[in-house]
């Protein structure tokens, strides 16, 4: 079930830098270099597979941009929020 704008805004209050862009829950992460960015993506890929929820993302050198939406539901759902929360925890655990 898709979340309302108010529900999304409440859910992302504690998620640093996440915002709604063109209907996606979106954030760009910056790393020290390519290896750290790729390591982050590798860790998140494992979680994506476990969650059965795969992001739209891109990597250019030390940046990883993530765009989240639940295509089957046609909008942002709790699954997207959980993915964003996991990304934040992984990023923070990397000491960045």
Distance between the termini: 33 Å
CATH classification class: Alpha Beta
Q: Helicity range of the residues?
A: 40-55%
CATH superfamily: Transcriptional coactivator/pterin dehydratase
For the biggest β-sheet, the strand order reads 1-2-4-3
Helices and strands, in order, run as HEEHEEH
**Count of distinct structural domains:** 1
Shape: globular
Write the layout of secondary structure elements.
Layout: H1 5-11, E1 19-21, E2 24-30, H2 34-51, E3 56-60, E4 63-68, H3 78-93
Antiparallel strand pairs: 1-2, 2-4, 3-4
Can you describe what's shown?
The protein is of the alpha+beta class. It has one domain: 2-Layer Sandwich (Gyrase A, domain 2), CATH 3.30.1360.20. 43% of the residues lie in helices and 22% in strands. It has three helices and four strands. Strands 1-2-4-3 form a four-stranded antiparallel beta sheet, with helices on one face. A hairpin with a 2-residue loop joins strand 3 (56-60) and strand 4. Helix 2 runs antiparallel to helix 3 (78-93). The longest helix has 18 residues, at 34-51. It is globular, with a radius of gyration of 13 Å. The model has no long low-confidence stretch (mean pLDDT 95).
């Amino acid at each position: 079930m898709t979340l309302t704008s108010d529900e999304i805004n409440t859910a992302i209050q504690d998620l640093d830098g996440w915002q709604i862009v063109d209907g996606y829950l979106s954030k760009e992460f910056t790393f020290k270099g390519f290896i750290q960015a790729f390591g982050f993506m590798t860790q998140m890929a494992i979680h994506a597979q476990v969650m059965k929820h795969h992001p739209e993302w891109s990597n250019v050198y030390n940046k990883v941009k993530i765009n989240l939406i639940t295509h089957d539901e046609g909008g942002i759902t709790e699954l997207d929020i959980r993915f964003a929360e996991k990304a934040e925890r992984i990023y923070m655990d990397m000491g960045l």
